[in-house]
Amino acid sequence: MGNQFFEPYDVVITDGLVVNATGSRLGTVLVKDGLIAGILDAGAPLPAHIRRIDARSQLVIPGGVDPHCHVGQVLGEFSMLDNHAQASIAALWGGTTTIIDFAIPEPGQSPLEAVHEKRKAAQDCRTDLALHGGVVSWDRTTRDQLLALADLGVLTVKMFTTYRDGVMAGFDTIEKVMEVLAGVGGVAIIHAEENHVIEQAQAEELAKGRGGSRHHALTRPEAAEASAVKRALQLADETRSAVYFVHQTTPEVVDLVAAARAAGTRAYSETCPHYLTLNEEVYESDRSELFVCCPPLRPNSSVLGLRERASWGLVHTLGSDHCCYSTQQKEKYSHDVRSMPNGLPGVENRLTVSFDTLVVKGGMSVENFVAMFSTNPAILNGLRSKGWIGPGADADIVVLDPRKTGVISATSHHMKSDYSPYEGGEFTGWPSTVISGGRVVVDDDGFHDPGPVGRHLSSKAQLDAVPLLAATVTGGSQTTYAEIESEELLA
Ligand code: URP
Ligand code: ZN
Ligand code: ZN
Question: In what helix (H) or strand (E) does residue 160 lie, and over which residues does it extend?
Answer without folding.
Answer: strand 156-160
